[in-house]
Every structure is written in C-alpha cells, then in structure tokens.
Automatic annotation (TrEMBL):
Molecular function GO labels: 3'-tRNA processing endoribonuclease activity; ribonuclease P activity; tRNA binding
Catalytic function, reaction form: Endonucleolytic cleavage of RNA, removing 5'-extranucleotides from tRNA precursor
Descriptive protein name: Ribonuclease P protein component
SUPFAM superfamilies documented for this protein: Ribosomal protein S5 domain 2-like
Gene: rnpA
Known function: RNaseP catalyzes the removal of the 5'-leader sequence from pre-tRNA to produce the mature 5'-terminus. It can also cleave other RNA substrates such as 4.5S RNA. The protein component plays an auxiliary but essential role in vivo by binding to the 5'-leader sequence and broadening the substrate specificity of the ribozyme.
Gene Ontology biological-process entries: tRNA 5'-leader removal
Subunit note: Consists of a catalytic RNA component (M1 or rnpB) and a protein subunit.
GO CC terms in record: ribonuclease P complex
Record-listed E.C. numbers: 3.1.26.5
Keywords: Endonuclease, Hydrolase, Nuclease, RNA-binding, tRNA processing
Family from the record: Belongs to the RnpA family.
Pfam family, one: Ribonuclease_P
Top enzyme category: hydrolase
C-alpha cells in the first residue's frame, strides 16, 4: 500500500482530474494528472479498476496491489506536486508482473511537467 501522504482521496478529486486534468494513454494504461496547489507537496496517486474490467473482487484487488507495488518502487522518479489517476485498459490484464512495471515506467516517462 502506498504511504498515506501519497494516496489521492478519490471522493473529492476523481471528477476534477478527469475533467480539467491532462491525460496520457498507452496501449495498457490511461493516466490523468493535474498540478496541486503547492508545487512542493508530495504527489498523490490512485488506481481505479472497474468491475466491468475485472468482475471478481479478489482478482481486481490483486491487480490493484500489484500496480501499487510497482508505484511504490517508482515513487522517487515520479514528479513532485501532482495528482495522478491511473485507469487500466483491458489489454493490461494480459501483462505479467515485469511487463506491468515497464508499462507504468513508459506511462510516467511521457509526462510533460512544464
């Protein structure tokens, strides 16, 4: 699990990020991101996996935990001062553990933080 100060509370920020934030997509993942009020504040992340994508709660939570594990190890490389929302696509279900990490690295390398 991500540290508390790196978790994005979805209740308040999900729709705001999807409407006014920027988005980046790869074949496997979509990333919505927006800047925070304070550029020095730590980045916050959230993962949303729909029931349509993975109907079984057990498999859905396993997939979420795997992505969170990769994000935890990528935290030092993630830009500071942003909120991130990650949405997996159906093609991401067929990735193995190492390919998931590569897909996340590729996604975060595309971010334009100017």
């Amino acid at each position: 699990m991500l540290p508390r100060h790196h978790r994005l509370p979805l209740r308040f920020f999900r729709h705001q990020l999807q409407k006014s934030g920027r988005s980046i997509s790869t074949l496997d993942l979509t990333l919505y991101y927006g800047s925070r009020e304070s550029p020095e504040s730590p980045s916050r992340l959230a993962i949303i996996i729909s029931k349509k994508l993975i109907p079984s709660a057990v498999k859905r939570n396993l997939f979420r935990r795997q992505l969170q594990h990769h994000l935890h190890s990528l935290l030092p490389t993630i830009p500071v001062g942003y909120d991130f929302l990650i949405l997996p696509k159906p093609s991401s279900l067929h990735l193995n553990f190492d390919q998931q990490r590569e897909s996340l690295e590729k996604l975060f390398s595309k971010i334009n933080t100017d």
